Amino acid sequence: MPEAVRIFQPLRVIHPLRPGTGRGPRRSAGGPSPAALVHTEAVRILQPLLAIQVLRPGTGRAPKPGKKHLNQCGGNEVKKTKSEPQFSDLMKTSTISKLLGLTLAAGGLLAQTAAAQISIDFVPVGNAGNAADTTTYGAVGYDYGIGKYEVTLNQYSTFLNAVGATDTYGLYNANMAANVNIAGIARSGVSGSYTYAVIGSGARPVTYVSWYDSARFVNWLQNGQPTGLQLAGTTETGAYTLTGNTGIILRNAGWVYGLPSEDEWYKAAYHQPAGQGGDVDNYWLYPTANNAIPNSRNGSASDPNSANFFRDVAPVDGVNDGYAVSGSTSFPTGNALTDAGAFSLADSFYGTFDQGGNVREWNDAVISGSSRGWRGGAWVNGVGGLRASARGSDDPAGEDNIVGFRVAIVPEPTVVGLMALGIIVLARKRK
Length: 431
Prior knowledge:
By secondary structure, this protein is α+β, with helices and mostly antiparallel strands.
């Protein structure tokens, strides 16, 4: 595996936008993998810098022709020739590898560092400066990224194991294990040594999370996913400065990870410029890039307009038979959630999944006093909850079996400049 792929793949770099589309590349059958796309983009950025020679470890000099030296990244011997170093050679030097990671992190392009405990897939949302929908929502004046999927049980349980040994602020709710419709996450041990484990499929979205819980999760991302108590530097500062589970808390200046604003969430779900195949008014009614009512079903690899919500249309044939997972109009007695990516063709224009159905999602809006906004509808809701016109709010300390969240990211614009500057500085060390 090329060294660039080894470095970048676990970091989930946001994919470059497809020219003229404002959205990331789709992988067609037989097409390049995300890792290959990342490698290609790294080559594109760094190819002009190939004149920089590979340095011999501890010498500041290039390797002598025909001599063997140890690859500092992996410890493998590689033999150099008299030819100029290739891109793969550059990527095999630990100094440059670390420099790339640091500069990309400084630019906000990474979903996590190499030591991260979880990875999050983000999709880019382009077409900056778009106008709002007739609902007055959706205008965003900058490019950003948003979670391709809702935050999952696997991701949240990892977060709990990192910062929830004491669980000062109640990031865990006992209903995460007790409620059969969403279970969930189980907790073991006593305060000071709590541990957490996923029940069932960890690819389903987490629920029973308050707005404050969600804000602490993004603070944890912002702080590099540390392990420790729920304090400043782990969960209480970062994108948000929290003071317990009270108050109207807004995103801090300089945030990189955050809960999406209502406009960011709305645009990712419903926007598609008419000139790029969208509706005449640049917005769809449903977050499946469609104006037709989606089908309710238990996942689909063939239906591009389907979701996990309640819809009952005769006859009983496996589609629109009531609750999506159980296929019945009787209230579910077991799991009612679908895995991230279960509707593999039913994405928005920008490539997000489940912004309609499965679970409602917190956003950053402040609505009616201190209530915080949510959108998207849930597995228990009818089709109205999926529409662009549907919005609601709840007590930010409230927790429910139909509410989860996804994460937004705003990269800094100077990453390529930082990267080039860092490599130039390295080049000046040559003897």
